[in-house]
Amino acid sequence: MSDLNSLMQANAEQLSRDGSVTKEAVPALMGKFVEKLQSYSAIENWAVFLAHAIAVILLLLLALLANYIAKRFILKIIKKVVSKTSNKWDDLLLKRKVLDKLSHLAPALVIYYLVPEVFSQYGDVSATIEVISKIYMIMVGLLVVDSLLNCAVDIYRTFTFSRSLPIRGFVQVVKIVLYFAVGISILSMALGKNPSYFLGGMGAMTAILLLVFKDSILNFVAGIQLSSNQMVRIGDWVEMSAFGADGDVIDISLTAVKIQNWDKTISTIPPYAMVTNSFKNWRGMSESGGRRIKRSLCIDVTSIKFCDEEILGKFRKIHYLSEYIDGKLSDIARYNKENGIDESLIVNGRHLTNVGTFRAYVEAYLKNNPKIHKDMTFLVRQLPATEKGLPIEIYVFCNDQVWANYEAIQADIFDHFFAILPEFGLRVYQLPTGNDLQMLGVK
Question: Is 241 exposed, middle or buried (0-12, 13-18, 19+ CB in 10 A)?
Fold first, then answer.
């Protein structure tokens, strides 16, 4: 072929020197070209081409066979063995498809090791295919490691202490570094450059990278603060009104804290926002064993009065008040006697009132309620009177923290108190309704 090229170049130079193409020059050139073609063995060239074509086809068939064996036989056998084991960790490997991704290495390995033999006479082609095979295997390895890290997070979450120290954010940082390192390696192999060549260029882009990844860096630092200070854990009930979040924390990652609200919506909050803004964590309530009941009864002040003998006789029949009435009357009689109180006028000395007796009844009733926590704050108090009446506040803790049960217990308690108020000659204060105004018009 080199001789043929030389011949064509020589004739071209001759034509350029002559300055024109004569009738005799063209046949002479064609004759010499035909003679050169006849000197080559066409059959031998076709044999070499067919040999390489068959070798390439066999190589592809071997790669497909390796892929088929890896997925249909080896992988299938491993899955059967894993399904029969009692250990749950290997099930997570199947769930994250670690072995499925690993099986993609089989055809790449076949091509990588056999290509130098098939293309031994074509060094450039062999080297190019080897580089492509390496890049493919590195990418498969990256996906396998990524799945292994996800599997490690799943395994870690099976332990109880994982709630107090979530590691998903740290794993995401490892993934970012890993993807960056693999990206540099692939570029260096594809372009034939040393990795330090790209790393040197990255130094000049540090300021730009810091600007681009500013939020990620802030969230990473905030995530470390949230975890190290145990400010929030998976499963905590968190309330953050600035973001409309009120529910349980279901995930903590490098870029977001996910909160499932009580209406089943999901609020996504950046970790940095949880460090710089205030939020309420109800974990203390969950760990205390009690849930607070804080509610008031507003008493109509016009229904408050002293207790006479008839009312006191009625109160003595109430199970929770019999001992209280006897003890209180004894203390009052002794005080009035020691201080020479003239009891002909009720304004003199001490006397029982229906609202004070009702408050004592509320306290006794709650102390005998098995659903009220006795070792936590227990308070029945009178708040300052307002235009809406005299508030009697109940501040106690329920020993059942389940939301539905807590609401039912609270409702039962106040149902009883509202119903029992008329027995003490008391009325609940409420603003006039349309029915009240209608009755006033009838009168």
Answer: exposed
